[in-house]
């Protein structure tokens, strides 16, 4: 018999489970309810769409990746009419496009992904939230790939429903997720009058009933204790670093990688303000196959470089600077690895300055 710490994990205490909600709320800078969903973030997203979607509840759904597309499909399955607003592939949506679509479609809500790891962009969420508020529209945000790396002051921005997962910048487990819900958000989720089963695994309303509105002595739905312990540990690690410090580390990593790419005369895919702090996407020079480049960077130099994902990302490679990879050592190693791989594939850009750019970005960091 092999002993393993993963076997027979101790039960996760209900008071600690209750504290997870407020600890996650602190990460999101919100006093709203935060419910823990016993499934990966994609389950939480489906739960939101399933509760919210209903005939007579039109939603403007911004699509900047496959996640957004799926969200629109779930809403439609629940009876909503959905206007999918597609950005230029691989690029953020513009506020002008959103305004035009809202005027044309008169939705009750806007759904959007905040940061996109696949293409390395962030959508202009603060502006969109301000616009949504001015029109009385509910906001639903997939912040899985932005929480902990991008500023996300949920209450300041007045976001109603925000879905997060710990598995990206929080460096936590992938099998559990959370949703912050405002009072307006709860009202919208609960308004769906369709006939339903006594309990659904994809319903935040049921989690609210069975946990938030209970005496909170029994954790509902028997979530896997290993996931809860892992979330607890991920939050403890994150709290030790600090929210602002984590955001700063990701923003510095972003600046450093972008400075290095520029110094080589290469093209960055996203503009500074549109760029994700988790990954930097680089347009691969003509004549080099992005897949070969990523393979060499990874295989020969151990650099966290992969190809872009999805429409618009075919000519891109991504440098990952998420969580522990947002550290100086990791960023330095990854950009040098990318440069070495570029050279091996015949890239003949400037010889000097690349590392100076990284050093300068870190020397000037907060
Ligand atoms: C990673 C990610 C998710 C979650 O996907 P999982 O399959 O649960 O890991 C959702 N939305 C976005 C934008 C993501 O980057």
Automatic annotation (TrEMBL):
<keyword id="KW-0032">Aminotransferase</keyword>
<keyword id="KW-0808">Transferase</keyword>
<dbReference type="GO" id="GO:0019265">
    <property type="term" value="P:glycine biosynthetic process, by transamination of glyoxylate"/>
</dbReference>
<keyword id="KW-0663">Pyridoxal phosphate</keyword>
<dbReference type="InterPro" id="IPR015424">
    <property type="entry name" value="PyrdxlP-dep_Trfase"/>
</dbReference>
<dbReference type="Pfam" id="PF00266">
    <property type="entry name" value="Aminotran_5"/>
</dbReference>
<comment type="similarity">
    <text>Belongs to the class-V pyridoxal-phosphate-dependent aminotransferase family.</text>
</comment>
<feature type="modified residue" description="N6-(pyridoxal phosphate)lysine">
    <location>
        <position position="168"/>
    </location>
</feature>
<dbReference type="InterPro" id="IPR015421">
    <property type="entry name" value="PyrdxlP-dep_Trfase_major"/>
</dbReference>
<dbReference type="GO" id="GO:0004760">
    <property type="term" value="F:L-serine-pyruvate transaminase activity"/>
</dbReference>
<feature type="domain" description="Aminotransferase class V">
    <location>
        <begin position="93"/>
        <end position="309"/>
    </location>
</feature>
<dbReference type="InterPro" id="IPR015422">
    <property type="entry name" value="PyrdxlP-dep_Trfase_small"/>
</dbReference>
<dbReference type="InterPro" id="IPR000192">
    <property type="entry name" value="Aminotrans_V_dom"/>
</dbReference>
<dbReference type="InterPro" id="IPR024169">
    <property type="entry name" value="SP_NH2Trfase/AEP_transaminase"/>
</dbReference>
<protein>
    <submittedName>
        <fullName>Aspartate aminotransferase</fullName>
    </submittedName>
</protein>
<dbReference type="GO" id="GO:0008453">
    <property type="term" value="F:alanine-glyoxylate transaminase activity"/>
</dbReference>
């Amino acid at each position: 018999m092999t002993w393993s710490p993963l076997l027979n994990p101790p039960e996760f205490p209900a008071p600690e489970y209750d504290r997870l909600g407020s600890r996650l709320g602190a990460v999101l800078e919100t006093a709203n309810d935060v419910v823990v969903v016993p499934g990966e973030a994609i389950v939480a997203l489906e739960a939101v769409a399933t509760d919210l979607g209903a005939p007579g509840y039109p939603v403007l759904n911004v699509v900047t990746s496959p996640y957004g597309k799926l969200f629109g499909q779930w809403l439609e399955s629940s009876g909503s009419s959905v206007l999918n607003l597609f950005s230029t592939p691989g690029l953020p949506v513009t506020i002008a496009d959103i305004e035009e679509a809202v005027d044309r479609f008169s939705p009750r809500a806007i759904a959007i992904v905040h940061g996109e790891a696949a293409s390395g962009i962030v959508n202009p969420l603060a502006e969109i939230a301000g616009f949504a508020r001015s029109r009385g529209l509910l906001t639903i945000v997939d912040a899985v790939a932005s929480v902990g790396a991008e500023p996300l002051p949920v209450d300041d921005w007045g976001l109603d429903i925000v879905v997060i997962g710990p598995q990206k910048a929080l460096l936590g487990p992938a099998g559990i997720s959370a949703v912050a819900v405002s009072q307006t958000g709860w009202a919208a989720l609960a308004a769906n009058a369709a006939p339903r089963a006594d309990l659904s695994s994809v319903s935040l309303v049921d989690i609210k009933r069975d946990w938030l509105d209970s005496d909170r002595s029994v954790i509902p739905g028997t979530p896997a204790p290993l996931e809860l312990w892992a979330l607890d540990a991920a939050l403890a690690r994150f709290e030790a670093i600090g929210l602002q410090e984590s955001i700063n580390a990701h923003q510095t990593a972003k600046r450093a990688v972008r400075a290095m790419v520029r110094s080589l005369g290469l093209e960055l895919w996203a503009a500074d303000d549109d760029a994700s702090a988790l990954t930097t996407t680089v347009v691969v020079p003509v004549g080099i196959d992005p897949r070969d480049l990523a393979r060499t960077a990874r295989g020969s130099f151990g650099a966290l470089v992969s190809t872009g994902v999805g429409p618009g990302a075919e000519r891109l490679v991504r440098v990952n600077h998420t969580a522990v990879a947002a550290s100086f050592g990791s960023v330095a190693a990854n950009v040098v690895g990318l440069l070495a791989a570029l050279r091996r594939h015949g890239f003949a850009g400037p010889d000097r300055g690349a590392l100076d750019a990284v050093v300068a970005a870190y020397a000037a960091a907060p």
